[in-house]
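Quick entry between incubations.
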Amino acid sequence: MSVTADAGTVLEVRGLTFGYEREAVLQDVDLRIGRRDFLAIIGPNGGGKTTLLRLILGLETPWRGMVRWPTGIRPGDIGFVPQFSTFDKNFPLRLRDTVLMGRLGRGGLLGRYGKADHRAVDAILERLHLSQRAASPIADLSGGQLQRALIARALVGEPRILLLDEPTASVDAETRQVLGQVLEELNRDIPVVVVTHDITAFASQVRQIACVNRQLYYHGSGQLSHADLAEAYGCPVELIAHGVPHRVLHDHSEDAVGS
Amino acid sequence: MSELLTLLNYEFARNALMAAVLASVLAGTVGTFVVVKRLVFIAGGISHAAFAGLGFCYWLGVEPLVGAVVVAVLAALLLGWLGEHRARSQDALIGVLWAGGMATGIVFIHLTPGYAPNLMTYLFGDILTVTRGDVVLLALLTVGVVAVMALFYRTLVAVAFDETFAAVQGTPVKWMTTLLLVLVALSVIMLIQVVGIILLIALFTIPPMIALMLAQRFLMVLVVAVLAGLVTSTGGLAGSYWLDLPSGPAIVLFGIAVLVLVRVGTVLRESRLLRDRERA
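Done. Structure below.
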């Protein structure tokens, strides 16, 4: 993998090392995301997938290395879909109000939501098949509806890159399908990064796979077939993939890094 | 009832009522943020720390509430600066501020020559001793706190709901949390006069808890919490008059009674809705 930035690079991560305690969770991670990439970050639990995402989002300060946005993406330009556990489901908000928060990055600390913000919310709710539930309290939503609401919140700010943390955990089939479609459409214009343990959910959309287990094993780009997918699962972790026989894959060797 | 209304001919009763109204506004609005953001024990730590400043100024012979304001705000800044990411040290620090503030306050009051009749007033509150000057000060404080909250409303709600998402959007989460704690500190001073240091946490929690059971939108929760605070404080005051009880505890116990009633009401309504749905 080339670490020199070319014109199409939207996000560049170089030599990133970070840990919460004394031990490093991530070691010398390099990653480059281009304008039309659809990257799946996979890896075992505790391998550092979410930590890498937090570093990219600027929520943690790296010990060493850096995160660069060559095209000038700023915090308000990043669409982010967190896991359910980061907020309280019983918070007194309607679905609409929740999605509206995706416009927070515009207008500053003292800002107010205006007509344009509300129109943007209407449009995105329509697109994610949520218009009917707009006035429902978020506590009353199903897992799939809530997941789509979080994606709507990430998209309503018209992001220049979209990052999702385990978007298919605890969602229904309808949501998976809508999600796949929407992400595919989005990917025509902006890069998408999905942290997931379930790569099959986006099998037809994913173009690149990176496996994170303290270090990052980047498995290149190009159209992926199911066979390629199986090859890409180099993580020392057991996987069941759609269309791929269930098997325990071999460990990484260092020379497999990069492509 | 008419007996209560004639009471309003007395200035002390009018002042008490005004203080109750202003306290309800602060307790309902700031308290809702305290409850949803789980800052209840931070608010407790700040209020007990304030007692140190109160005692110090009592000993100096200056207005004790000035000392309380200064120490409460300093405690808020310290806890905000420390932040939640160092959760263990923050939790322990709350304990130190809590007991340390009380100890310091008691030592200074002990050192002050003469009897200290006001001590109990600050610990348990006595709304009937609120003066006209106090009411003016409280009104200014209320307007200030509500104005700041209104200015930063959208950001404060976003940070209260999902800190991580707000941070990704470029919101200075730590500053906003610290701002919220300073608003808590200023409200604490006001509630000290109404229910006292030991009981004020009740006014931060009971009205918002009632509101969270009844309303589903954040703004409505704030409005209902203020109303619930009004019912609690005026109802408690009336009860303290009728039953000849100290006003602070009467307000707290009346509030808890209202809370239980509302909870029973919502449970009954939900079970009826469920039964109707099953029948349909």
